[in-house]
TrEMBL record:
It comes from Cereibacter ovatus. Belongs to the complex I 24 kDa subunit family. This is Formate dehydrogenase gamma subunit. Binds 1 [2Fe-2S] cluster. Pfam families: 2Fe-2S_thioredx. Signal peptide: none annotated. Keywords: 2Fe-2S, Iron, Iron-sulfur, Metal-binding. GO terms for molecular function: 2 iron, 2 sulfur cluster binding; metal ion binding; oxidoreductase activity. Its cofactor is [2Fe-2S] cluster. The keyword Metal-binding applies. InterPro entries: NADP_DH_HndA-like (IPR028431), NuoE-like (IPR002023), NuoE_N (IPR041921), Thioredoxin-like_sf (IPR036249). [2Fe-2S] cluster binds at residues 82, 87, 123, 127. PROSITE patterns: COMPLEX1_24K.
Amino acid sequence: MQVDEADVCARVGDILDAHGGMEGPLLPILHAVQDAFGHVPMAALPVIADRLNLSRAEVHGVVSFYHDFRSQPHGRHVLKLCRAEACQSMGGDQVADRARALLGIDWHQTTPDGAVTLEPVFCLGLCACAPAALVDGRVVGRVDQARLDSLLDEVRA
């Protein structure tokens, strides 16, 4: 979905107004922008930078540093697979390989039909139930090949 630059500027202006006077507002503003658009459009960066008296590079640096911020819209569903050591030791690499193969995409990509975006995440705090996944914000433990197949059926439906 293409986002109109004038619409971005207007909506980001409203978001900035709503966060006026907040101390350390950059992260909450970026989260609100991503909630509004499904990603942080590049056209939003100069508007945010100007209002917060930051450089565009500073704002871009924050967006690109944090994995949860996206510069492109994600799929209708987001599947995050834990890549931390506990999950890897319990078969997480095999689950990840299978997910990438079945979806036909790599990390940070979205299936051609726009259904699923696949993202790595480094620790969901579910180490005792490794390997773990996050499906549209829902934590799932003990993800083996069968459970992965079930999750993929769910997000493709």
